[in-house]
């Protein structure tokens, strides 16, 4: 039931689900169950991206057994399953390259990216097909997502970004300094990925955010559904300044620093100011909570990621209200000290 992916084009396939391998087989089974609960009948290929054959665990065999356990349901479903190997899936850059390759060989007109530790809500593909029926010319459909705790209880829901319908031009401002979407909450036409050049592997965990930044400036119809499409794992990175462990994301700052994401000069200023406020407020909170080592570490990591000659960051610090950030002068002094030592 799990075969090598065929490169020959199959025009009967409408959807391709690129299933991004995650090692927890129990979560993968939950993901498969959520997929098989979808009520649509459109021909769909599932392309499972597996780690290299040299890996000490034969995940292909484990997945074959998992699919055999659900054979009776699968043969009645619109799904076919195939796989392709990808090197070093544990590393974000290699993972992103594998993702680009998988989308390139996909047969479906519509691409849905879904890590196998996520879950689709029961109505996910109903939402997608309903939009396509009413608005057949849309090129991208996005919805909300739930973030789950270890016990599979909902920890938080992503914010509602827009009313339901085709988004306005101002939708792009949601991506100025964060990524409010997720792999599993978005489906898009394959040509859109190809035309945009896909994700940029070197941007690591922030590559998806940077892609949405570019797409949000495009001239095509983007439809937003203010309902949850998927559940994502608590540990999954979603393109924020700090990860779920409170660690600074260097790749996030890289997007801003190299001005990689279709930013106008005015947008760069707005994004930098918003990020600076988050950053300095976080450092201030560390100092207030006696987590001095964490605050110092964030400052050092921050200065590694940005141009030390960029005075805008310190200007934003100077402008912040002393009532909001009580360690303002201390943070300024530490930054100056670290800069001097780095420049010696």
Sum up the structure in keywords.
globular; alpha/beta; 344 residues
How would you describe the overall organization of this protein?
The chain is an alpha/beta fold and 344 residues long. 40% of the residues lie in helices and 18% in strands. The chain is built from twelve helices and eleven strands. It has helices spanning 25-36, 59-69, 71-75, 92-105, 124-134, 190-196, 207-215, 250-257, 265-288, 292-305, 312-319, 328-343; strands at 2-4, 15-20, 44-50, 79-85, 110-115, 119-120, 140-148, 154-157, 165-166, 186-189, 222-233. Strands 1, 2, 3, 4, 5, 6, 7, 8, 9, 10 and 11 form an eleven-stranded mixed beta sheet that branches. A hairpin with a 5-residue loop joins strand 7 (140-148) and strand 8. The chain is globular.
């Amino acid at each position: 039931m799990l075969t090598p992916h065929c490169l020959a084009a199959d025009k009967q396939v409408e959807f391709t689900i690129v299933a991004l391998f995650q090692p927890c087989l129990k979560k993968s089974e939950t993901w498969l169950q959520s997929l098989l609960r979808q009520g649509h009948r459109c021909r769909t290929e599932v392309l499972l991206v597996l780690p290299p054959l040299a890996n000490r665990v034969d995940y292909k065999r484990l997945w074959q057994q998992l699919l055999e356990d659900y054979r009776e349901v699968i043969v009645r479903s619109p799904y076919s399953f195939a796989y392709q190997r990808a090197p070093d899936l544990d590393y974000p850059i290699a993972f992103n390259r594998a993702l680009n390759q998988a989308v390139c060989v996909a047969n479906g007109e519509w691409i849905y990216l879904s890590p196998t530790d996520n879950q689709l809500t029961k109505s996910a593909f109903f939402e997608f097909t309903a939009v396509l029926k009413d608005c057949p010319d849309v090129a991208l459909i996005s919805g909300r997502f739930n973030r789950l705790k270890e016990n599979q209880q909902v920890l938080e829901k992503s914010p509602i970004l827009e009313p339901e319908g085709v988004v306005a031009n101002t939708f792009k401002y949601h991506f100025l300094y964060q990524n409010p979407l997720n792999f599993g909450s978005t489906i898009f036409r394959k040509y859109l990925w190809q035309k945009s050049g896909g994700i940029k592997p070197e941007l690591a965990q922030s590559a998806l955010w940077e892609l949405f930044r570019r797409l949000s400036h495009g001239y095509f119809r983007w439809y937003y559904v203010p309902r949850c499409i998927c559940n994502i794992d608590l540990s999954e990175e979603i393109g924020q300044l700090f990860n779920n462990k409170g660690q600074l994301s260097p790749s996030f700052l890289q997007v801003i620093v190299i001005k990689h994401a279709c930013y106008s000069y005015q947008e760069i200023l707005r994004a930098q100011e918003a990020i600076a406020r988050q950053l300095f407020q976080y450092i201030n909170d560390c100092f207030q909570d006696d987590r001095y080592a964490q605050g110092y570490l964030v400052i050092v990591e921050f200065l590694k990621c940005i141009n030390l000659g960029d005075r805008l960051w310190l200007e934003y610090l100077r402008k912040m209200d002393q009532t909001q950030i009580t360690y303002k002068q201390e943070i300024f002094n530490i930054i100056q000290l670290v800069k001097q030592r780095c420049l010696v």
